[in-house]
Amino acid sequence: MTALSAEVVELDPQQAIAVRGDVAIADMPAFFQRAFVAAAAAAAASGVEITGPPFGFYPEMPTEIVAVEAGFPVSAPIETVGDVHPLMLPGGRAVRALHVGPYETMATTYIGLQAWMAEQGFHPADGMWESYLSDPRIEPDPATWRTEIVWPIT
User: Fold this and answer.
1) Does 70 fall in a domain?
2) What CATH number does the domain containing 20 carry?
3) Which of 8, 31, 4 is nearest to 93 (CA)?
4) What are 84-99's pLDDT values in tens digits?
5) Which residues are CB-contacts of 67 (< 8 A; sequence separation ≥ 6)?
6) Domain annotation covers residue 108
7) Number of folded domains in the chain?
8) What's the angle, vertex CA 104, arms to CA 117 and CA 137, rounded to 5?
9) What is the mean pLDDT of residues 14-35?
10) Within 10 Å of residue 111's Cβ, how many Cβ atoms?
11) What φ, ψ does residue 137 adopt, rounded to 5°?
């Protein structure tokens, strides 16, 4: 594992579109695939531009069943289209860190990030998200995948 690189950032709220689900961990890949396809189609049908990488937004700490919103940041809000609805990624103070490697090893990065926040005196808030910077179809080696973790702090 590479050393954790984390920074405190001030974010503006970001308009997004997403599909919400309560998903078992084993079913996450299929959910994300379905959600990203639906969100991209809804953006195209609504005439809005996708402005960043796909994300998974977690409104609360994940358990065996994960509450998740999966979608894309967009240039403008849309009306609800099927399962796709508007969402605002929160602004404010947050910690941002980069995970490099397969999704299955992200727990190690989260543990390191929580320890780093505690050392800095930060308290994690609800509503963290992951932006998937690598496309596994283009970068098939999971060891090279990059995921940005954004975790609001108080």
Assistant:
1) yes
2) 3.20.80.10
3) 8
4) 999 999 999 999 999 9
5) 20, 21, 22, 58, 59, 60
6) yes
7) 1
8) 115
9) 97
10) 11
11) -70, -30
Q: How confident is the model at residue 2 (pLDDT cuts 50, 70, 90)?
A: low
For residue 79, give the amino acid letter.
E
HSE-CB for 112 with a 13 A CA cutoff? 16
pLDDT at 1 over 50: no
Which among 99, 100, 110, 7 is positioned nearest to 58, based on CA atoms?
Answer: 110
User: Is 1 a member of any domain?
Assistant: no
The alpha carbons of the chain give a radius of gyration, in whole angstroms, of: 15
Percent of the chain at pLDDT above 90? 92
Residue 136: inside a domain, yes or no? Answer: yes
- Domain of 49? 6-152
Give the Cα separation of 8 and 96 in Å (integer). Answer: 6
Phi, psi of 139 (to 5 degrees): -115, 85
36-94, pLDDT tens digit by residue?
Answer: 999 999 999 999 999 999 999 999 988 889 999 999 999 999 999 999 999 999 999 99
Residue from 53, 52, 86, 91 nearest 69 by CA? 86
- The token duo for 20 is 């919400």
